[in-house]
Amino acid sequence: MGLLSSTVMRHAPIGKLPPYLSFLCIAIGVAWLLLLPLNDYSRNTYVSENALLPGQVHTYFAGSDQNVFRGYKREVDALGESSNVDVNDKLEEFFKATGLKVARQKYEYKSAGEVYRGENIYAILHAPRGDATEAIVLVGAWRNIDGELNRSGVALVLTLARYFNRWSLWSKDIIFLITADSKAGPQAWVDAYHDTHQSPAIDSLPVKSGALQGAVVIDYPFDHRFESIHIVYDGINGQLPNLDLFNTVVSIASGQMGIRVSLQKMWQHSDSYQDRLKTMLRGMINQGLGHATGPHSSFIPYHVDAITLQPFGDGWQDEMAMGRVIESTFRSLNNLLEHLHQSFFFYLLMQANRFVSIGTYLPSAMLVATNFTIMAIFLWVKSGWPIPATKTLLSTSEKKEKEEKSPLVVVEAGGAKALIPQKDLQVRERKLFLPLTVVAGCQFLGLVPLYIFNHTSKDNLPIVFAIFLVLNTFLPLTLSILLHSSYCTPPTPNQLSLIQSFSLLLLGMYLSSLATLNFSLSIIIGILSSPLSYIRPLGHRPILAAILVMLLGVLAPSTVLLVGAKYWGLDVGDVLVEAAFGWDVGGMTTQVVIWCVWWPAWVVGGVLLFGRPREEGGKSLEESSREPEVQIQVEKNRVWPFIGKKEAEYDITMHFIQNTVSVFMNEFGNVKIVWVFFSYIISFFLGANATTHGHACRRENIYFTIRCEA
Prior knowledge:
single chain, alpha/beta, Aminopeptidase, eight-stranded mixed beta sheet, 22 helices, elongated
């Protein structure tokens, strides 16, 4: 019954359906993604946690507090180029003068041959109405993510620390944290707060509070008035804060304070489909990259909801408006009875007040990932189909004689009987050792670039990447040559199908799992890898295979990295240094997905393009090739025309002619031109007295007749 099913499936139309179904999954997945910005698929944001009550309190940060802010800003400007220790000495004086408990923490990280060393300082305001079991963090890095002096941001943190200390309404402790930078400093402090730091490189925190309920970062490097607030919310590895925190800040800023809110650097948003799509795609790219976009990114992996507020533009809003936004936000977080959990942790934002939840956007990534699984199952089933009969041109009498010799087998299925030629019931045995070895080898090969790019010094990274880019171009061809060398038995079409099947199965499995954790990275890799589903061995057409490999090289991870860096005006070395820092310090895992999931699948695809499968019986011709078959029939007189040549030499000559004609026919496909050209070559081999002629029956079977005359 299984043999009959395989035979019927091979010839039935449904047996040809999976490739089209796979392409349909990709098309629907991409179309689904493009539909998300429409009103029918997205919805307005809302606050799920009723206890937050955003914008329901009156803020009092104004008046004399502005003079305090200006005084602190002058002090910060005076300390601008001072050492980290001198800066913290002065900041410690300010915090102690306010009446807060102050502590400091030294840290040191090493990554890409660079040393990141600094000292954090923080102060704790103990809640008059709390029991030190919960806390909120206000962060102001001394230098922001772009390396600029965060003069107004640090001054505002100091001013708010003095202002908050006058109020007795706080039920949660408030921690005021000033870090030396926006990457290593926040990560060291958060790790030490949760006792996951590495000693002695990172000091433990001498003073702690309760569980962190949220964090707000101020990135305010200039001293002029601003127009809008830019909210940065992307975390490491695509993690996001609870949507309620984002909605609370938006509601307070735009609703209560009348300040426009922007995100993903969309400074002018017209709420059109194009702007929504652009905002969504920018958010997906940031989420897919998985790098830290600000100090807030260090908090999110510990389930501490955090965002960064960046004033932007030239307008009439001043530092007091920014302070009132933060005051009202902290008043809302102070109302929480439990950790934020009501709203979404997985979402895509189209603008400040419109989003798409995971239940709506997840099917698009799943459909793209499913196409790999469909093709993997199809190739597995196809590898067990009966061996197709070799196409040969026989005379009518020969065909009749062969058909008479082919026995018929009676097959019963569902009460019906059928006579099927025994040759159609032949099946191929699946030999799994070579396919599993090749796929597993490529998977482990991904550890090489993963290790190299995460452990190479900053100065050598550009050179190492350039060398890798060149080697990566020739790697598929090199592996294919090794696979077909004399040291190992060349793979059969069955084994090449299994290699592709296992590779696509792993890729589909990885991307399906990844879609629930980092949707953006999953669908980006899925779309870029979709051509791998339709690769077929073209070793017998080396020119075409080389062209396709070059086209496939455009979609290689290294090429995408290079093109992406140039598009955004970044240096590849800086991108690799950032990735290495994220790997060593922040726990960034994007590199694992790229080099151990995407890149191995790409390598297998390139190897398959150069594959030259042998027949099951050991011949070197393509058993399942759809290319034209070239057959040469020699008719000779009783008088042997090859004077001085042995019959073995004659056979070698004809074998050479047949293979050469086959290669040229497969590459160029022009029957007439190839035949005229090889008429002269064959005449040369057969001798001056030989005459040649031939004809083409059809494109699939080219039949040459060579007549030799004495």
